[in-house]
Design a protein that fits this description.
By secondary structure, this protein is an alpha+beta fold. It has two helices and six strands, in the order H-E-E-E-E-E-E-H. It has one domain.
């Protein structure tokens, strides 16, 4: 019986681990999925350094090279795929649970007419929802 119980415990833990991974991968893409915007990325505060697809660089899968005006408008290129995003807008500083992560958030897509308060609100709603799904921070 102990072998069966041990196997059951291992199976449950493996399935839980797989579920966590399944949630982590799409969660980082949620903000970009809103209304055909994207990509969304985060850079070290006050600069275009260490730009990644998540607010936690340790979990990043993609990195970006950007130029433009920090905390305003930028054009960026995904260093992994080479895909470029010519119009990216500063969305604000990421505040995880009320504390600064020292990461600035940007969202790319379309032109200036597409960005308004509703888009900004939806962006942060989706970022927070993704963070809750993966238990970050």
């Amino acid at each position: 019986m102990s072998i069966s119980k041990s196997t059951s415990t291992i199976t449950r833990r493996t399935l839980l681990g797989a579920l966590v991974l399944i949630l982590i991968l799409p969660a980082s893409a949620l903000p970009a999925a809103a209304d055909d915007f994207g990509p969304a990325f985060f850079c070290d505060a006050q600069g275009f350094t260490n730009c990644t697809d998540t607010n936690n660089p340790a979990l990043a899968e993609d990195t970006f090279s950007c130029e433009g005006t920090v905390r305003d408008i930028a054009s960026c290129r995904n260093l992994l795929t080479g895909e470029s995003a010519p119009y990216c807008v500063f969305m604000g500083e990421d505040m995880a649970e009320g504390a600064s992560t020292n990461r600035d958030a940007y969202l790319c897509g379309g032109g200036p007419e597409r960005f308004n308060d509703a888009v900004k609100h939806e962006f942060w709603y989706l970022v927070e929802k993704a963070q809750q799904q993966i238990g970050y921070p």
